[in-house]
Each structure stands twice: as structure tokens, then as C-alpha cells.
């Protein structure tokens, strides 16, 4: 029998949709911020504990009085129910958030268990997919990353979503600076894609193709890697390039400003700092 290449039927981007949540934070002043969160597992060590959290930007969660988080519902058989969404309102979101230890790194995490407990009290079921679908790049993969790579941002730009299924919006772009370099001497890199309000907290992925051999067949498996979290967007004014946060309460365009579709992505390695805190 001749060997051949078979593409695996698993679709990682379709599966990851349940891990992307819409976040709406209301301040005491009634000002509203909207953005995106990613369900992620930290402290994944053999024989150790697993800490599930919602990862987002600190500037989105800071000083929130009320926070609404929209999840995918779970069917009785454990499958995602994309036609139904579960909305959980939290009054402790900012108080329970754990900010990144470096105040210059615009990240925070919120314990997912607090949401799951609240959902159980309200008699609702939330679909939580396996985060093994989107791990960080390995050292080998990182060493082979080119200066320009295709990337995919997933979230809710300008609060858009599929109204029928509640699933997020996928946007394709490229890295504008090398992932392995520190842009402006910070743990971040630039991407070139459509970035608008409510992009705060959106995860950025890249695709890695793996080939394995089973009997006489070669299996091509498409995998995705989490390479970072959107931090801010860059705006071109008449005189200079300025940065602005990508959440809903901050106007990002005036008559003398132009969106240049460049955004800063916080490097995925900064999530590892939370593991040190939680160890």
C-alpha cells in the first residue's frame, strides 16, 4: 500500500470559540468598558494543581463595579450549545482579579471557579473546552518562527459577534515585528490586522502544522499556539504615532487621527509570571 498524506479532521479554531468570552465592565460612574477574555489554565504541572482563569487586560477590569461575562452554554451531553449563551453578572470582578506583578504589563486574571460556582447557584451550565487546544509555543517552535508570520486574533471588535450563535469574530493578520524581539524594549510585539474598540484582551494565535506517521499514512494535524494578548492599538495623528487602549470607553479616532491597523500584543511568556505567583 502506498503511503499518503491525510489531513486530520479536527478543527482547532472552531473548538476554541467556547474559550473566548465577552466582558462588559460598568464603573460606578455608569461608564461602560467592553472587551474580550480568554479561559486559560495555569500551573499545569505534573502532579500539581490546575488553576483555571479568565485572562484579560487590567485596564478593562480596573475599578469595575459590575461585570457581565458571556459564555457558551453546555448541553446535557457536555457538548457546546452555541445557540444559547449564559450571562453571569459579577460584583467582585476587579476585587477578585489578580493583576500582573509588573504594573507595566497590562494583564490580569480572574478565577474561573468563582463564575462556575455562581452559574451552579443559578442553575445554568457553562461550556469549558480543554485548553490543551491552544498551548504556548515550544522552544523549538519559537526558534523556528520567522520575523513575519500569519496570526489570528479572536474576540469581539466593536462588540460584534455572530448573533445566531454568539461565537466571536476571527481576524487574520501578520506579525509586524518579530515575536522573538521586545518591541520598544517591552515584552510585546506588533501585529498588522484590523483592530478596533473592544479588542482589549483578545487572544492572538498562530498555526503550527504537525506531521505524524500512523502505519503507512502520514497525518497532517493543524494545531494552534497562543502567542499573546492584545494590549493597545497604535493611532497615527498629524504629528506622531500615539497609542490608545482598545476598550470601549476610550475614543480612538478624532478628525486628525488615522487608524493604522497596528496593535501591540503582550507576549505570551508574561502569563507564566502568574504561575510563579500561584505556585
From TrEMBL:
InterPro entries: Peptidase_S1_PA. This is Trypsin-like peptidase domain-containing protein.
Amino acid at each position: 500500500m502506498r503511503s499518503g498524506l491525510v489531513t486530520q479532521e479536527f478543527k482547532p479554531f472552531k473548538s476554541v470559540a467556547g474559550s473566548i468570552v465577552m466582558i462588559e465592565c460598568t464603573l460606578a460612574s455608569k461608564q461602560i468598558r467592553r472587551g474580550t477574555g480568554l479561559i486559560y489554565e495555569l500551573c499545569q504541572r505534573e502532579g500539581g494543581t490546575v488553576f483555571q482563569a479568565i485572562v484579560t487586560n487590567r485596564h478593562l477590569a480596573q475599578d469595575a463595579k459590575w461585570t457581565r461575562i458571556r459564555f457558551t452554554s453546555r448541553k446535557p451531553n457536555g457538548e457546546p450549545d452555541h445557540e444559547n449563551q449564559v450571562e453571569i453578572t459579577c460584583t467582585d470582578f476587579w476585587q477578585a482579579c489578580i493583576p500582573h506583578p509588573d504594573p507595566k504589563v497590562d494583564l490580569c486574571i480572574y478565577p474561573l471557579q468563582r463564575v462556575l460556582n455562581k452559574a451552579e447557584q443559578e442553575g445554568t451550565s457553562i461550556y469549558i473546552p480543554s485548553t490543551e487546544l491552544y498551548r504556548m509555543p515550544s522552544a523549538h517552535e519559537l526558534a523556528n518562527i520567522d520575523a513575519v508570520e500569519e496570526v489570528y486574533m479572536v474576540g469581539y471588535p466593536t462588540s460584534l459577534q455572530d448573533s445566531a450563535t454568539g461565537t466571536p469574530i476571527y481576524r487574520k493578520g501578520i506579525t509586524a515585528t518579530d515575536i522573538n524581539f521586545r518591541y520598544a524594549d517591552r515584552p510585546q510585539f506588533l501585529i498588522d490586522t484590523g483592530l478596533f474598540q473592544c479588542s482589549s484582551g483578545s487572544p492572538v494565535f498562530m498555526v503550527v502544522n504537525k506531521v505524524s506517521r500512523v502505519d503507512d499514512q502520514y497525518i497532517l494535524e493543524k494545531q494552534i499556539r497562543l502567542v499573546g494578548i492584545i494590549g493597545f492599538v497604535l493611532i497615527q495623528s498629524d504629528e506622531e504615532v500615539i497609542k490608545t487602549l482598545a476598550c470601549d470607553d476610550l475614543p480612538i479616532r478624532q478628525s486628525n487621527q488615522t487608524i493604522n491597523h497596528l496593535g501591540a500584543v503582550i507576549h505570551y511568556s508574561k502569563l507564566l509570571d502568574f504561575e510563579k505567583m500561584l505556585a
